[in-house]
Write a structure and sequence with these properties.
The complex is a heterodimer of chains A (249) and B (414).
Chain A lengths: L10 H34 L2 H4 L8 H10 L1 H14 L4 H22 L6 H4 L5 H14 L2 H24 L5 E4 L2 E4 H8 L24 H27 L11
Helix pairs in contact in A: 1-3, 1-5, 3-8, 3-10, 4-5, 4-10, 5-7, 7-8, 8-10
Chain B lengths: L1 H23 L15 H6 L1 E8 L3 E3 L3 E10 L13 E6 L5 E8 L2 E2 L11 E10 L3 E11 L3 E13 L8 E3 L5 E3 L5 H23 L4 H9 L9 H28 L24 E11 L4 E10 L5 E8 L2 E4 L15 E2 L3 E3 L10 E9 L2 H4 L12 E10 L4 E9 L1 E3 L2
Parallel strand pairs in B: 2-9, 12-21, 15-16
Antiparallel strand pairs in B: 1-3, 3-7, 4-8, 5-6, 5-7, 8-9, 10-11, 12-13, 13-18, 14-15, 14-19, 17-18, 19-20
Classes of the chains: A mainly alpha (249), B alpha+beta (414).
């Protein structure tokens, strides 16, 4: 068989090879995104995602969507413009969250014995699903960035509230009031993470009384729009095939 | 000859691989916290821990113990370390082997960061509840923003029992008593499982059909629009609307279930109550100080003046948690960690009682292997080669006075 001959001899074989190829690419994409996205998110979102006593209504709400819309935007750019597959955001976030769960369960709990109820990851899935659907329906990067990016920021806090709310029930402890999440952070000793490192409830957003979470979410959504644009272009750049002579684009 | 060379090369490579693989199975236990690696001047010239007491050396799971004592925030705080304006009273333990059931400075609970004043003494207590069985090195510790962790003396404590028996009951302000160890865990798993299921359903909807090769061909040949059908769009709408409905409904249901929630609590605690040490009537001037490297001994020439009304004797020199005692004056009865206690480590050229009004110049030697073991001798390699410590004097009635010393240290290599 010469190099120019086909490796398959029938349509059935071609379909089989194509499907095998699908699974190989999916596996590679999934693990590569899991690793890259996980490192990125841990470095940028880090403690806000690690600990319940960092999951506040200002900075967590603001930071987590902004730093996590990155890979979804880039992978969307590749999968949509090359393959018309509206799963870029969801597959990225699923990969990230599986990696996070492995990390939290194996390392945080299995290795250092922090209870899982203090170190579970944030839920980014609602925003990712909506981001994919908006891209599919609109077939527009601009629309996805503006509407999807905003939705991604807005859905984050309510998407996590059912998980985090029980830990915001107040408790009186030795004459001070704190939330159960604060108490977790105090009880479960982190030698290398002193209390002052926590960046929670800081800022000048004081004119909305107790309703700062929606304002933070809107701000996060606006910045997510910009970050979406930026990372979408990264994705398109990485998905270029200039190195293939007859498929330059 | 070439065959032999190739064989040797191949076998060497295999041997290297076997060695590296075998090395992976050797993982010795890290049993301390690197306290000896912290720069000596940091330990000597920032927080001076004294009168430390670990209430127990063995404690069953669910039982409590305390670390208590005092610390002096050294007035000669080094310029290279940020001032302790934002600090946190911590404990140096390998993860949550204990839970910190309480911590107090000057009687005030300190779950948050505090502001400390240079030159002041504070009394502290940390209440620990045993959680994970094992032998653990338990340190007092002060984290200083911009300065890092300043670790105090550590003592081995054994926790017995089983971690599965550990409980952490807490009563909320809504009257519910919960076990914080496992509280809301089912809820965490449930909601993450729900969203993973929805996300996997969305992925499966697309992944079940041929993906990359045929779709790429279609896109490349201008048939991209044929790849998304009206049915796909309907399913997509269903997922998007369903997602938003679930988010809204679950948030509403959560608010009904937990009507009382509060934001995370944060903020700096200022004005911590200081501990008033008895006014010292002894003054000490350091004429010179040298560290003799071969002898593992620090020698100081001190001019001591007794301005009080009773004779005093020098009984202890404490630096970086290492205590050098003159047993003729003072003996430890607190079960202080052996490795940090030089029971006969302090010698004074003339330690006869210093009469009221008398001034005397003496040679004081603090010698012990702890200088090397705790790497305090590395002070000579620090950027600010000054030593500091606490001198304790006793009078005949047993009254103790504390004096701080702070002076340049000259190494002697012969």
């Amino acid at each position: 068989m010469s190099a120019s001959q086909s490796a398959v001899r029938s349509r059935a074989e071609a379909v089989q090879v194509s499907r095998t190829f699908d699974w190989m690419i999916l596996f590679t994409l999934f693990t590569a995104v899991l690793g890259g996205y996980h490192i990125h998110y841990m470095l940028t979102g880090g403690d806000w995602d690690f600990w319940t006593d960092w999951k506040d209504r200002r900075l967590w709400v603001t930071v987590a969507p902004i730093v996590s819309i990155t890979f979804p935007a880039a992978v969307q750019a590749c999968l949509w413009w090359r393959y018309r597959l509206p799963i870029g955001a969801t597959i990225s976030v699923v990969a990230l969250m599986i990696g996070e769960w492995i990390n939290r369960y194996m390392n945080f709990w299995g290795w250092t014995y922090f209870p899982v109820n203090i170190c579970f990851p944030s839920n980014l899935l609602p925003g990712a699903i909506v981001l994919d659907v908006i891209l599919m329906l609109g077939n527009s990067m601009t629309l996805t960035a503006v509407v999807g990016g905003l939705a991604y920021g807005l859905l984050f806090y309510p998407g996590n509230w059912p998980v985090i709310a029980p830990l915001h029930v107040p408790v009186e402890y030795n004459g001070m009031m704190m939330t159960l999440a604060d108490l977790q952070g105090y009880h479960y000793v982190r030698t290398g993470t002193p209390e002052y490192i926590r960046m929670v409830e800081k800022g000048t957003l004081r004119t909305f009384g107790k309703d700062v979470a929606p304002v933070s979410a809107f701000f996060s959504g606006f910045v997510s729009i910009i970050i979406y644009f930026l990372w979408h272009f990264f994705g398109r750049w990485f998905a270029k095939t200039d190195f293939i002579a007859d498929d330059a684009s | 000859m070439k065959i032999i060379k190739d064989k040797v090369a191949k076998l060497s490579f295999v041997a290297l691989l076997i060695t590296m693989t075998a090395a992976m199975f050797y993982a010795p236990t890290a049993s301390a916290h690197g306290e000896k690696s912290q720069a000596a001047f940091m330990r000597m010239r920032t927080i001076h821990w004294f009168d430390l007491n670990w209430s127990k050396e063995e404690v069953p799971v669910n039982d409590t113990m305390t670390i208590s004592g005092k610390f002096l925030v050294f007035a000669g705080w080094p310029e290279t370390v940020d001032k302790p304006e934002v600090s946190f009273l911590n404990v140096g333990i390998p993860g949550p082997v204990f839970i910190r059931a309480g911590s107090w400075i000057g009687g005030q609970l300190v779950p948050r960061s505090v502001s400390l004043e240079l030159g002041e003494v504070y009394e502290f207590k940390v209440l620990l509840k045993a959680r994970r069985p094992g032998d653990w090195h338990v340190h007092s510790m002060m984290n200083v923003q911009g300065g890092g962790p300043i670790i105090g003396p550590g003592k081995w404590v054994t926790i017995t029992g089983s971690m599965s028996e550990f409980v952490n009951p807490v009563t909320t302000l809504t009257g519910q008593t919960i076990n914080l160890e496992t509280y809301a865990l089912d809820n965490v798993y449930f909601w993450h499982a729900v969203w993973f299921a929805i996300a996997f359903a969305w992925l499966l909807f697309w992944i079940k059909r041929p993906l990359f090769v045929p779709r790429h061909i279609a896109v490349s040949t201008g048939k991209a629009d044929t790849l998304i059908s009206a049915g796909d769009k309907k399913v997509g709408m269903l997922f998007a609307v369903g997602t938003m409905v679930i988010v809204a409904a679950s948030m509403g249901a959560t608010n009904e279930k937990y009507p009382v929630t509060t934001p995370l609590q944060a903020g700096l605690l200022r004005g911590m109550k200081t501990y008033q040490m008895p006014e010292s009537t002894v003054s000490v001037k350091v004429d010179d100080a040298t560290y003799r490297v071969p002898g593992r001994a620090m020698q100081m020439t001190l001019t001591i003046t007794n301005n009080g009304d009773s004779p005093v004797r020098l009984g202890e020199f404490n630096t970086a948690g290492v205590r050098f005692l003159d047993p003729a004056v003072h003996e430890d009865e607190t079960s202080y960690p052996d490795d940090l206690l030089a029971e006969e480590g302090l010698t004074v050229s003339d330690n006869s009682p210093l009469a009221p009004g008398e001034t005397r110049t003496v040679e004081v030697t603090a010698s012990d292997a702890a200088w090397e073991v705790y790497r305090l001798a590395d002070l000579i390699y620090d950027p600010d080669s000054r030593f500091a410590g606490l001198l304790f004097f006793w009078d005949e009635s047993g009254t103790r006075q504390m004096v701080t010393v702070d002076a340049p240290l000259i190494p002697s290599f012969i």
